[in-house]
């Protein structure tokens, strides 16, 4: 027999799960905004379309997760409220998704790290005790699997390409890798939700993630970075200097036309 949790305990779980959903929604939203910067600037028109489609998938993920957060926390906030009416300190995305692109190889390196994490996480979240989050995860895992294949292909292509493309790919990996550990941080929020069966423990996911990305880099003839420091703070609203302008750009149209809907 399955025990149903009600009352204050259920409310506490919903509030915690709301915060967790918003974290993931912020990751997807901010990364989508970053990828949109490549529209008309990508190396080829095919890549322009590919990155645009990936960004659209991520916007869809963000909308679902942020709306779920607004329902679970009892505020009734919509995805637009979360996206356009918060200050930069109120965003809880991981720092990985907000660091500036640098060049195309840097974007590919970030996509490699993010997509392998996202696929593993969403596959595990499909077993969540929360039915809405589980249903979302089933769909999102399939979409992000395509994003992962796209990133893997480009890592191998650049790693085995010219001396210059390999150099840029190595530099991109070294640049983003200090921000990868934050994806697997286990704070009190995550520990509580893991104990409740709502979300997976980060430890096993990190081990599989490490194995997967190492295998891709081996195919590409590239070394696995071993950073001597790890960035953190994004989940607590502490962001990089580049994040303020990025949020301002994201929110500019909505702030010019308050109350507008599209």
Automatic annotation (TrEMBL):
Gene3D superfamilies assigned to the protein according to its UniProt record, in alphabetical order: 1.20.1260.10
Pfam families listed in its UniProt record: PaaA_PaaC
Species of the source: Streptomyces albidoflavus
InterPro entries documented for this protein: Aromatic_CoA_ox/epox, Ferritin-like, Ferritin-like_SF, PaaA_PaaC, PaaC
GO cellular component, one term: cytosol
Stored PANTHER family: 1,2-PHENYLACETYL-COA EPOXIDASE, SUBUNIT C, PHENYLACETIC ACID DEGRADATION PROTEIN PAA
Example GO BP: phenylacetate catabolic process
UniProt name for this protein: Phenylacetate-CoA oxygenase subunit PaaI
Transmembrane stretches, start-end: none
Top-level taxon: Bacteria
């Amino acid at each position: 027999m399955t025990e149903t949790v009600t009352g204050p305990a259920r409310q506490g779980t919903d509030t915690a799960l709301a915060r967790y959903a918003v974290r993931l929604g912020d990751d997807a939203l901010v990364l989508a905004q970053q990828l949109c910067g490549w529209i008309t600037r990508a190396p080829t028109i095919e890549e322009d379309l590919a990155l645009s489609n990936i960004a659209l998938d991520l916007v869809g993920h963000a909308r679902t997760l942020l709306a779920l957060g607004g329902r679970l926390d009892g505020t009734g906030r919509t995805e637009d409220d979360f996206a356009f009416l918060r200050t930069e300190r109120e965003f809880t995305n991981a720092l990985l998704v907000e660091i500036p692109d640098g060049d195309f190889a840097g974007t590919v390196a970030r996509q490699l790290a993010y997509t392998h994490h996202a696929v593993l996480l969403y596959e595990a979240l499909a077993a969540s005790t929360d039915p809405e989050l589980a249903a979302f995860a089933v769909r999102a895992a399939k979409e992000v699997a395509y994003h992962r294949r796209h990133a893997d292909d480009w890592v191998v292509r650049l790693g085995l390409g010219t001396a210059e493309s390999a150099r840029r790919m190595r530099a991109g990996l070294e640049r983003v890798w200090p921000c990868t550990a934050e994806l697997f941080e286990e704070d009190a929020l995550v520990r509580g939700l893991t104990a409740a069966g709502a979300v997976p423990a980060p430890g096993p996911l990190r081990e599989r993630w490490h194995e997967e990305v190492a295998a891709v880099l081996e195919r590409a003839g590239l070394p696995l970075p071993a950073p001597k420091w790890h960035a953190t703070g994004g989940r607590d609203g502490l962001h990089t200097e580049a994040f303020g302008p990025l949020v301002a750009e994201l929110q500019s149209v909505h702030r010019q036309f308050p109350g507008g809907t599209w």
